[in-house]
Amino acid sequence: MAEKLKIIPLGGLDEIGKNCTVLEYGKDMIVVDCGVGFPEEDMYGVDLVIPDFSYLVANQKKLRGMFITHGHEDHIGSIPYAMRDLNCPIHGTAMTNGLIKLKLEEHKLADKVKLITHKPGDVVKAGCFTVEFIHVNHSIPDAVAFAIRTPVGTVVFTGDFKIDPTSKDGMMDLARLGELGNQGVLALLADSTNVERQGYTPSENVVADSLDRQFRNCDQRIIVTTFASNMHRIQSILSTAQRYGRKVAVSGRSMENMLKVAQELGYLKVKQGTIVDLASIKSLPKNKIVIVSTGSQGENMSALYRMAFSTHKQVEIVAGDRIIISASAIPGNEKSISNIINELYRKGADVVYEKSEGLHVSGHACQEELKIVHGLVRPKFFIPVHGEQRHLQLHAKLAQSMGMNPRNIHIGEIGTVFELTGKTCKVNGTVPAGRVFVDGSGVGDVGSVVLRDRKHLAEDGMIVVCVNLSSEDGSVISGPDIITRGFIYVKESEDLMEELKQVAMEAIDRCQRKRVRDWSAIKSAIKNDISGYLFKTTKRNPMILPVIMEI
Amino acid sequence: MAEKLKIIPLGGLDEIGKNCTVLEYGKDMIVVDCGVGFPEEDMYGVDLVIPDFSYLVANQKKLRGMFITHGHEDHIGSIPYAMRDLNCPIHGTAMTNGLIKLKLEEHKLADKVKLITHKPGDVVKAGCFTVEFIHVNHSIPDAVAFAIRTPVGTVVFTGDFKIDPTSKDGMMDLARLGELGNQGVLALLADSTNVERQGYTPSENVVADSLDRQFRNCDQRIIVTTFASNMHRIQSILSTAQRYGRKVAVSGRSMENMLKVAQELGYLKVKQGTIVDLASIKSLPKNKIVIVSTGSQGENMSALYRMAFSTHKQVEIVAGDRIIISASAIPGNEKSISNIINELYRKGADVVYEKSEGLHVSGHACQEELKIVHGLVRPKFFIPVHGEQRHLQLHAKLAQSMGMNPRNIHIGEIGTVFELTGKTCKVNGTVPAGRVFVDGSGVGDVGSVVLRDRKHLAEDGMIVVCVNLSSEDGSVISGPDIITRGFIYVKESEDLMEELKQVAMEAIDRCQRKRVRDWSAIKSAIKNDISGYLFKTTKRNPMILPVIMEI
After folding, report:
1. Side-by-side strand order, sheet with A222-225
2. Are the beta carbons of A302 and A295 closer than 8 angstroms?
3. Residue A364: active-site member
4. Is residue B406 helix, strand or coil?
5. What pTM does this model have?
């Protein structure tokens, strides 16, 4: 029996983020992208979500390399976690590798991992696979798609992309996608992020024009916040500042890091002296100042947040400051952004944030752009990726509207094994896949039970009931004592605390009368009685922790 | 010295929700609206937020009545809480009072509170105030504005409104506002919700047309979710269903309640037999079925949520079902709605939710409508209400653009006392105002300390350290025992648990050596040592509760 190509998404299907896909053929395996996801609202205390890498670890010997499409967190963020247990070279473009390097240094893994830098057009052999780098447009420079030659045919990964014919680094290489399409493509895996949106995503140039409008008629200090990784946007801010004779300072760690990488690699064209230190900019007149800051998503402790809430050490918002929010809300961040905007208004700032102002464009292709790529690549099989269920299904419908046979379109989930020959594609089983939570320095030691407890504690707090029982006859030696946290304002609820002691005492007495000597049965009795009593009196359900110590 | 009119917002300024405003003159006081707010993300476990009513309670003797503009929760939801301590008649229109009555019955207060029903055009005397009911358009029927005659001049409250010239119950009474303007209005308090939006809010009729389009070409079951209180929308759904020969069943408690009230009061025009029981609708062919359900905000346990996640007792989503989401996301609910949509897609449903489909219109006036009202009322003073800081400020700018003197525009916050004579308006001090949290049956017993503890517990869980010390020499009799919840998966962390016991033991030993016998000092030592150890080893910061029992 001939070998088959396996395509196995470990992340990014039926979810947003932690994009990671495995290609496997015989004794060879490569990985495309290795991103993180961000915790949902109910993942209390979780810092990051990473893919379950156990399939990669188990197949470590087959691993020939990791190929990264671009430097956003949802494509590179899990690399340090994967690289604790894996060993293979990582291939990316200059900007992408610059950002990966920062990450590896933070995790003290820079010496261990081999980073290999390529340009669009480069072709890399990795086992039986040959990976070609193809230039695409996106909201970070140096993003690429991959055309991967496999023994059964060519697989095209678009990565995140848009078609920006007036992009500063040139339109994405549609010609190459067309050539590949003409030669025959076995499977296409394409970005579904913006498939709900009709038409085209506007060019990044639109934002440059809007920024010019905002700078032109302004004689106040200007503070712009945007995604740190959008170097074309930062370039527009720098160019506009230069045009109006303003100096630019940067605030926020991720922005500083990003700028450092971009400048080192020559991605920013800026006159000597335009970028100045945040400390030195204060001495300039207001109409000579631009501050570029983090915080476009309303993040707690970001530079803009600290400026708004007066906890920034160097910058305080004053009446008249023009704050430009050059970003849109990632779903879930609406409230935090709104809080900052309100606070900026309260300080008397002039805040520009409306969609209608053209201060942000997406980095992802809308329907018409997706259709162009489908029309050029004309794959035999199509697997929509990078999206929640509705995105994947709408992308499947879009492919159908382009004439694809629905039987050749496959919607999977993480862990799904797609098995391809040159003529067929079918789902054949699954591999372990899931969400691994990073909390502090712990990876995977917080799971559903811990999160369930955190949710319970968050909603109603907890009550500890301590009692000392005699090991001889089970009688109460001391206690019960009641300690609560996050339940009720105790100083105004002393009566209730006394009642709870009574309820606990009665539960223990009842056990004694029934000659129950099993500690866990006594704990249950205390727990049930207090829980019932509290629900009756307060309609609340705190976590109750009976602690019995035997003397 | 002549008396002055005091206007005191207790809610709804610099925040969304819990709208409530006091008017006070000499020995008379009235209240306009008495709503609830909904908890923000960081208000763990809080069910509702209500205004601080202490100023009303302290001035109970002056209180002549409560006047309610319409029946939405953010205008009526706090009435049962206020009416525990207050005693005055409540004035509203029929629909509004129908909804208030339901609420009072739930809280067993229906006998205590006098509800008086009025029609637009009615004029009510309450102490020195005379309140006129004026018809406005909004997303609930029977909404009114108030023109309040006071000894120093007329005050106009718009309440929530939009101008809908083709509304089923007629355009709002702009003529009356114009007359009042001609006679002279002292102060205008106007809705700022949609002040960020240019142009006009489309008519509710637009949605009726869109619904027709969705029903026309559908031979499957249709499930529509919308805001339960939007009776014009429900009427459109019923009319469209009748037109296409479909029966309508209702699912979800708030929708059932609302329909009951609306039908009793004659707000719904529907042929006998169109509305049927949910249990009986299942026997009909798919193209004869419409289900109207709650859940348009993605609420956990709402009817649509239960249908999507297969926990609804009577309705299961099947492939082909057309689900129409006739609502937009209230900020903060985006994720929950998105989760339901994904789940519906997963079940094979055809989900219609795009803005572009015209399936929802707002109930609030956009910029051009606001300008019309300002142009008609031409108040001497303007106080923007119903909005966060940015809405209030933008509304102030809008009034300025209409020619108002900025010195006559006042932005306040809750508790601000605006003092008006016939010629002046100024801020003069504050009264107690704030956010009171309702959690279960408790009102005000959860405050910032409890919420801080809940947040702490939510993020990192907690560790209880129990130890029995001898009352004679402070030596350890039993323990220390370690119990954790929401911290780490304990079964895989036994080593860490042992280490924590060691750390606690060493802290106690150290205290013994230093002859520290003060329990609270020993507790601090245990807490600090464990906390430091955990931060070093896990970068986490759980709540640590040392419990010492003395034997």
Report:
1. A247-251, A289-293, A222-225, A322-325, A350-352
2. yes
3. yes
4. helix
5. 0.91
- Across the strands, what pairs with B476? B469
Distance (Å, rounded) from C-alpha B291 to C-alpha B304? 10
Choose the catalytic residue: B164, B191, B321, B439.
B191
Q: Rounded to an integer, what distance in angstroms lies between the CA atom of residue B222 and that of residue B237?
A: 11
Chain A contact set for B450 (CB, 8 A): 461, 486-489
For residue A430, give Cα distances in angstroms to A102, B186, B348: 34, 72, 22
Contacts of A439 in chain B (CB under 8 A): 460, 540
User: CA B270, B276, B281 angle in degrees (round to 5)?
Assistant: 135
CA A158-A100-A5 angle, to 5 degrees, is: 40
Q: Three-state SS string across A133-152, please?
A: EEECECCCCCCEEEEEEECC
How many separate helices (H) and strands (E) can be counted in chain A? 16, 25
CA distance A412 to A85: 27
Q: Mind telling me how many Å the CA of B536 is from chain A's nearest CA?
A: 9
CA–centroid distance for A192 within its chain: 16
Nearest-neighbour CA in chain B from A123: distance (Å): 38
- For residue B141, say if its preceding peptide bond is cis, omega within 30 degrees of 0: no
Name the token pair of B276. Answer: 């049927």
From B45's Cα to the closest Cα of chain A, the distance in A is 4
> Looking up tokens 């309702």, which residue turns up?
B438
Chain A residues in contact with B486 (beta carbon < 8 A): 44-45, 450-451, 453-454, 456-457
Dihedral sign (CA A508, B491, B469, B538): negative
Is residue A210 helix, strand or coil? helix
Structure ipTM:
0.89
Nearest CA in chain B to A347: B389
**B residues 337..356 contacting A (CB < 8 A):** 338, 341-343, 345-346, 351, 354, 356
Surface-to-core class of residue B183, CB atoms within 10 Å of its CB (0-12 exposed, 13-18 middle, 19+ buried): exposed
Burial-class residue A524 by CB neighbours within 10 Å (0-12, 13-18, 19+): middle
Select the residue of B454, B538, B543 nearest A440 (Cβ to Cβ). B538
Q: Which of helix, strand or coil describes residue B90? A: strand
For residue B335, which residues of chain A lie inside 8 Å, CB to CB? Answer: 40-41, 331-332
pLDDT tens for the 551 residues of chain B, in order: 578 999 999 999 999 999 999 999 999 999 999 999 999 888 999 999 999 999 999 999 999 999 999 999 999 999 999 999 999 999 999 999 999 999 999 999 999 999 999 999 999 999 999 999 999 999 999 999 999 999 999 999 999 999 999 998 999 999 999 999 999 999 999 999 999 999 999 999 999 999 999 999 899 999 999 999 999 999 999 999 999 999 999 999 999 999 999 999 998 989 999 999 999 988 999 999 999 999 999 998 999 999 999 999 999 999 999 999 999 988 888 889 999 999 999 999 999 987 667 899 999 999 999 999 999 999 999 999 999 999 999 999 999 999 999 999 999 999 999 999 999 999 999 999 999 999 998 899 899 999 999 999 999 999 999 998 888 887 888 889 999 999 998 888 889 999 999 999 999 999 988 888 888 899 999 999 999 999 999 999 999 999 988 87
Residue A107 falls in the annotated catalytic set: no
Contacts of A451 (CB under 8 A, 6+ apart): A42, A43, A44, A46, A437, B486
Q: Which residue of chain B is at minimal alpha-carbon distance from A456?
A: B458
Task: Give the C-alpha separation, A369 to A191, whole Å.
Answer: 11
**Closest to B481 measured CA to CA, from B496, B467, B502, B498:** B467
Confirm or reject contact between A448 and chain B (CB < 8 A): no
CA distance A18 to A119: 24
